[in-house]
Amino acid sequence: MVNERSANEQLRVWAPGRVNLIGGHTDYSGGLVLPMAIDLGTVIVGRRGHDRVVLVSRDDPDPAEVPLHVTDPASVTPDWARYVAGVVAEVVPGIGFIGQVSTTLPIGTGLSSSAALEVAVALALVGDDRVDRRQLALACQRAEHRASGVPCGIMDQLTSLLGVDGHALLIDCTTLDVTPVPMPDDIAVVVVDSGERRSLASVGYGDRRSEVIRAAEILGPLSSATLDDVERLDDDALRKRARHVVTENQRVRDVVEKLAGGDVAGAGALMTESHSSLRDNQEVTTAALDALVARLVATPGVYGARLTGGGFGGCVVALADPGVIDVGWTVVPSAGASVAPL
Ligand code: GLA
After folding, report:
1. Nearest CA to ligand 1 atom 8
2. Does 97 have pLDDT greater than 50?
């Protein structure tokens, strides 16, 4: 993994956040997702050198100061430094890095601010030459697990690293195959914050993941299970989770087809169906998220809306005619992370 830049070279690293258009809670069971990297993200400016990684942040008075051999990233303070430490623990750089980090991402709302930080730190430490971006995404995913204890899937880190300008990414989370899907340029992708912080997110997310994995142990890979298979599950909760995953994988395929055919209304309707399944089957929405989706889809010119991210609070993503939603962030499908000499 180590592919280090020479000491003292000044770098600017950019790592975008992501919004997931459809394919919620499918990545950790090897399913399909359709996220896009966005024009909000995280920048690190600095230089290699020293015997530790030291980053100051615009958003926290306390710096991250991480030794090159760190064994327990979760115990590092301040909180945001855990993610830096997670990446250092995975990458094990031979040389440190001194720099500054800043972000245009709203932190902790479901637009992958932590994945953007991990990817930016990883690229600052290893550089971009000859690096295998899939392997780096997997290292950043492990870093997230070690830092936060949240057993996230691969979508966020992979999207930040492999984003394509003007495109969403169809990702098969079993093979990690990534197929860029052109996004119509006359349609706005709008992210709206419910204002509800994701307080139960790590517990709820971990529980859902365990249930989905348990269903897959009984049925075999959910990516090839049918609804008939699902209905044979005795346990109510497992049956609902598996039903969500199997129907959601199909909705991802269907949205890709609708977008290819220019049927934005059809794609939007599937996003709203996805939200209903996240509410009724996966049970990761909240009353505030449900009300926000209902309000958005009742607005003329909005084609569909759904929870994006892990749930239990956070943001909703909508497909709409430009200008009809006057809150939130209108985000642009963007290229993946980059490293440039300064
Ligand atoms: C979080 C995780 C992702 C994915 C989504 C739900 O964003 O980090 O891996 O599981 O939730 O789709």
Report:
1. 152
2. yes
Residue nearest to atom 2 of ligand 1 (CA): 152
The residue to mutate among 155, 202, 283, having the most atoms of ligand 1 within 8 angstroms of its beta carbon, is 155
Q: State the closest ligand 1 atom to the C-alpha of 310, by its place in the atom list counted from 1.
A: 11
**At how many degrees (to 10) do helices 133-148 and 81-91 cross?**
130
Pocket mutation for ligand 1, best pick of 156, 159, 203, 282 (most atoms within 8 Å of C-beta): 156
How close is the Cα of 16 to the center of ligand 1, in Å?
16
More confident residue, 200 or 271: 271
Query: Measuring from atom 7 of ligand 1, which residue has the nearest CA?
Result: 309
Q: Quick one: pLDDT at residue 155?
A: 98
Q: Is the pLDDT of residue 28 over 90?
A: yes
pLDDT for the residue numbered 9: 78
3-state secondary structure 303-342: EEEEECCCCCCCEEEEEECCCCCCCCEEECCCCCCEEEEC
| For ligand 1, atom 11: residue with the closest CA | 310
188-331 CATH, one of 3.30.420.10, 3.20.20.70, 3.30.70.890, 3.40.50.2300 = 3.30.70.890
Beta strand extents in the chain (DSSP E only) = 10-20, 32-33, 35-48, 52-57, 60-67, 97-103, 167-172, 177-182, 188-193, 302-307, 315-320, 329-331, 338-341
Catalytic residues: 156
Domain boundaries, the chain: 4-182+334-341, 188-331
pTM for the complete prediction?
0.96
Domain 4-182+334-341 has CATH 3.90.1210.10: no
4 pLDDT above the threshold of 80: no
Q: What is the pLDDT of residues 63-74, one digit of tens each?
A: 999 999 999 999
